[in-house]
Every structure is written in C-alpha cells, then in structure tokens.
Predict the structure.
Amino acid sequence: MTDPQPSAPPTPTTPDRPYKRLSPLTPLVRSFVLVVAVAASSWDDFLRGDVGPLAWILLAMLLAGAVYGAASWLRTKYWIEADELRVDTGVISRQSRRIRVDRLQGIDIAQPFVARLFGLAELKMDVAGAGDREGSLAYLPLREAEALRETLLARRDAARARRAPGDQAEQGPTAMPHAVPEHVLARLDLGLLVMSLLISPEAFAFLVSALVLGGVFVVLGNLPGAAVALPVFIGFVLTQLRRLSAYYGFTVSETPAGLQVRRGLIDRNTQTITLSRVQGVVVSEPVFWRRFGWARVDVSVAGYGSGGGENGRPAVSTVMPVGPRNVVLWLARRLLEETGSPDPDEVVLVPPPPRARWVAPVGRHFMSSGVGPHLLVSRSGFLNRRTHAVPHARVQSLQLHQGPWQRRLGLADLHVDSPPGPVRVRAQHRDAADVRGLLEEANRLARDARTRLTG
C-alpha cells in the first residue's frame, strides 16, 4: 500500500473584479446640512447638561443616519469590467448597475460647496437612454474622479473605434489619450458678467414693474402697501446672485476630449463638450446688450437636453453666457469645427414677403432665414435676437408646415428637426414655392455633407 501523494498547496487567487469604494467622507457630505442643524439646535443644551426629549430624538436620528450612511458606503462598490462600469449599491435591497462605456455621451465633474470643502467631487455620466441618476458616482476624491473620467473616455473611444470600419486593431481598450496641455480659449471677465446682469432683460422688467407698482401706491396714497413688492425684490436679488455665482469664473478650454467648460463660485462644475456630437449653435443678443456688442452662445449636443437654466442655475448648453460678439462667433465656429468651422454671419438671410404681415404683423420685421454652403440659419426676435444655426451634416430631417392662413396667403414654414436642446432652426412665413425649393436644396446639401463627413 503506497502512501498518498501530498496535495499541492493551494495557489492564491486574485479577485477577478477588484473593486473600489467611494470616499469614506461621502456619508458626512450627504448629511452635512443635517449635522449642522442638529449641532446648532442642541449644542448649547448639551454643554449645559440640560438635554430635553427633542434633543435626544434629534441625536438618535443623527446616529441612525450615520449608521445607515456607513452601511451604504460599505455596500457601494464600483469597478470596470471589460467594456462596462459596474456599480453595486443598496443596504436593504441590492442593486447592480451596468453602464456600457460605448453608450456614454459625456462625463462631467461637479463639486457642490460641501464636497469642495472636503476635496471631493461627483462624477456625472450622461448615458444614452438612461436617467439622470443612472450614471452618477458621488463622492470621489477630485483626482480620482478626474482619473476615472479619463479612463472611461479612453475606453469609450476605443470601444467605438473597434466597431468602426477600417479600425486599427492595435488600439486597446485601455489606451489613454496623449497628455496635451490644457489651452484656455476664453474666460469670462467678472466686471462684464456683473454689467450684463444689471442691464439684462430681467433687470429691466423688474425696474419697470417696481416703478409701476410704486406709482400706483403713491397715487392711491397707500404707501405701506408698497411692502408687498418686497418679496418680489428679494426674489429678484436672489436670482441674480444665484446667476452670478453660477457663472463666476466661467472658462472655456481646449482639451484632448473636446472643449471643457468650468464655472461656479460656490458649486464648481466641469463639463466637456465633444465636438463630434455638436448638433448646432444659437447666438443670443438681448436688446440691451447689442449696444455694447455683447452676445451669448449655446450649443445642442447629442445626448444632452437643455439641462437647467432656471432660477439662475447654469444650463449645460451654455458655452459662454456673455462676451464680445466677435469672441462669441469665434467660439461658435470652434464648436462647428467638425463640419468645417462655418460662420453663421456668412449665410445670406432672407426676410418673409410683405404679405406675411397678416400672420405676423410685428414679428415678421425681425424674422429671416437662409441656406448656406455649410449651414441652415434662422434669426428671430427683437427683445432677444437669436440666430440658430445647424450644419447640413447634422440635419436629421426637414418638415414643411403650412397652416390654414398660410395656405390662403401662399406661405409656409420649414422646420429643421434636431435633438432636444436650445437650437431650433425655423424658416417662418416664407413663400411656399421658395420653401419647397429650400427643402429640396437642404436635403441635397445634407446628403452631400454626410457623405463627405463619413468619407
């Protein structure tokens, strides 16, 4: 009988999915306001030793929240597996999210005020077909968030390149972009921002309303009644301060991934606009800005909506909230760089015919539209003149609209379909025969432009 051969010692195994966790300070950042509120309301009572039932209840709620936050942090893990970002979360019920890197539209970095205090940031990933919170990691150390963002963008580009015809196989999924120094293209001057807010249409409307209300109260002899305007005044001031804080330090830079926009005084946000996904631009010129030659430029990007812009919050579509018109147009050309850097001012715009006064007696004086070699452009508005431009290569479809009054007058509209966003090209109240000609010409130019773009 032979002795059994000793079994080989087990070889150590490495985990096939090495995961990472969020910053351990995440629970504190999420509940910072609650912690401050409890401390402010009960700190004196604890120091005096006079702790009432309410203080104990608040303390118990704070401790329960801390335990739940710690458990949530322990159960939240993320890692990159093949061409997916995996995120596991949940304390009571487990959730596992799988985000395909090739479906990432954009990745932004946001730093709310409290997170900035601790050097943390939130990674916001815009995923095709997903909700706002489907692609979010909060909170990570700022450098770790930036590194993860670069890794995901590199994997996304590599995954898309592997599916593209004629791809060079030597580019692996972990290829990182070459380190190119960031180049600042434009920076918003603080004085210009303050002046633009003071002479904005909103400020003018508030001033007129205040004068009218004040005059009414004076005429009626009810001076104490003027106090009803105080909430309106406070709301206006808060909105303007919120807008000032949102656009403070607005900087547009060129990076390997595209144009990068940084903004914010209290909450810092970093957004990258991929030029190949730009669908069109709109240049806005409020009436009070035109005297000083100021303008604003917004952009439509595939996968992004208009995204905010209410109550002074910055919209994700804003590339420069205010600036000299020549600088704004130069930025517009840079945004359209993938389609040849066309200039919207070079397109000849034609107004509606005189008979359009029966459907737009005032607005027709400020409407015009045209088709250029590279762009479809329309302009409208007096109080806020907007020039919308869409490259032919980005035109998704064209529609001819004709209402009952337009049919009687021989007029029609040409609508250019674009992804959700601020850009809406409309050739309004043009001669019906001209619109049909524009439709055919725009279709031909769109086919030719897409052919040139795809090679």
User: Anything to note?
Assistant: The first helix runs from residue 26 to 30.
